[in-house]
Design brief:
104 residues, 56% helix, mainly alpha
């Protein structure tokens, strides 16, 4: 589990940056919206909702259960495209890039 600690720290940083950008939501989307089969739940969730309600819980559950983490994923490019007009999300994009590098 020790090798996963940097990722845990990055996940905590991602959550903090979502709060800082005022993208964190107190109320979860309906369960129907969370079961999308599309990448990033593009058909049912906003990008930040997917991070908060799908990505963070799944990654934290894997870490807690000491399960192998996915390798070779690249989520930052999707968010770079989604938020290209939102310079205020630059710090979020840095954290997402670091998460990608950790999962390489």
């Amino acid at each position: 589990m020790k090798q996963d600690m940097p990722l845990k720290i990055l996940l905590d940083e991602l959550e903090q940056q979502l709060h800082n950008a005022q993208l964190w939501q107190e109320i979860a989307p309906s369960p129907q919206l969370l079961v999308s089969e599309q990448p990033f739940a593009i058909d049912t969730l906003e990008p930040e909702q997917w991070l908060q309600w799908v990505f963070l819980p799944r990654m934290r559950a894997l870490i807690k259960a000491e399960q192998p983490l996915p390798k070779g994923f690249a989520i930052a490019p999707y968010f770079e495209e989604c938020w290209r007009q939102n310079g205020e999300y630059a710090t979020l994009l840095v954290v997402l890039t670091q998460i990608d590098q950790e999962g390489a």
